[in-house]
Specification:
Blueprint lengths: L1 H17 L17 H28 L4 H16 L2 E2 L5 E2 L4 H8 L1 H18 L8 H25 L4 H27 L6 H38 L1 H6 L4 E3 L2 E3 L5
Antiparallel strand pairs: 1-2, 3-4
Length: about 260
């Protein structure tokens, strides 16, 4: 438990150092960028899952209060990674999402709430995203991303891939699908005069493709490293979350990448 507290402290300190406010246009949809119609649509679409997520977190923590630190670590990991702004060749920027770890550990519903809180803090204190676009950013990064990550992890385990490979694929595709969703949101709000929705989606997807794929790979590898740390020092907590397979009354730590 001490090791996990130490890791949490390191993640938070890195977050403070790395995400100090700076001028940049990141992939979080910026304040006021979406027409009010679409801002409201994505907010309404996100609300039911957020409510469901609060219920999920409440149930998990009431049953196992010792998971609070691990949940906090998942939130800190998401905050740090999603607040990083990596310059893109287009003059804009891309960033990791960090939602894969929490989605695998606590499920996509719980991660929707954590992701929304992270996005709210970034909008208020880092000028990263916005309040009017919070619903849209929540839908892409805190709902679609975690749902895809969780689904990929479960599918990977079903076909008997190792924990490491399953975690990598979950983080990778959770990141990629967040950006696909954001591109579709922008395309819906701003269809091209020639080619309409499809042409606009291709344009927005191509803007970030060059930097986002390498970022998704890096995020996958980093998530595996953090998971392996937890697998070593937080076996008890992970067993409560049914991350490890039980074998003969003990815990089977599957090989990673």
């Amino acid at each position: 438990m001490y090791k996990v507290k130490k890791l949490s402290f390191i993640v938070i300190v890195l977050g403070i150092i790395l995400v100090m406010p700076k001028t940049a246009h990141a992939m979080h949809i910026m304040e006021g960028f979406l027409p009010i119609k679409w801002a409201l649509i994505w907010t309404v679409a996100s609300l039911p899952l957020l409510i469901w997520g609060v219920i999920s977190i409440t149930k998990q923590l009431s049953k196992n209060p010792q998971l609070k630190l691990l949940l906090g670590l998942s939130g800190a990991f998401t905050f740090v990674l999603s607040a990083l702004k990596i310059p893109s060749v287009t003059g804009s920027s891309s960033h990791p999402t960090g939602v894969g770890l929490g989605a695998v550990l606590f499920g996509p519903l719980a991660m929707s709430v954590i992701g929304c809180i992270v996005l709210l803090f970034q909008a208020l204190f880092l000028a990263h995203g916005g309040i009017t676009t919070l619903g849209a950013n929540t839908f892409s990064m805190a709902i679609v991303g975690p749902c895809v990550a969780y689904g990929i992890f479960k599918l990977s385990k079903k076909i008997r891939l190792s924990n490491g490979i399953a975690i990598f694929l979950a983080a990778f595709f959770g990141d990629i699908m967040t950006y696909v969703t954001t591109s579709l949101q922008l395309a819906l709000a701003f269809p091209a005069e020639t080619g309409g929705l499809a042409a606009s989606a291709v344009k927005f997807l191509s803007i970030f493709a060059v930097t986002q794929i390498p970022l998704a790979i890096s995020e996958g590898l980093l998530t595996v490293i953090i998971f392996n740390f937890l697998a070593t020092y937080s076996k008890t907590e992970l067993s409560l979350l049914n991350i490890f397979k039980k074998k003969e009354g003990g815990i089977k730590h599957e090989p990673s990448l």
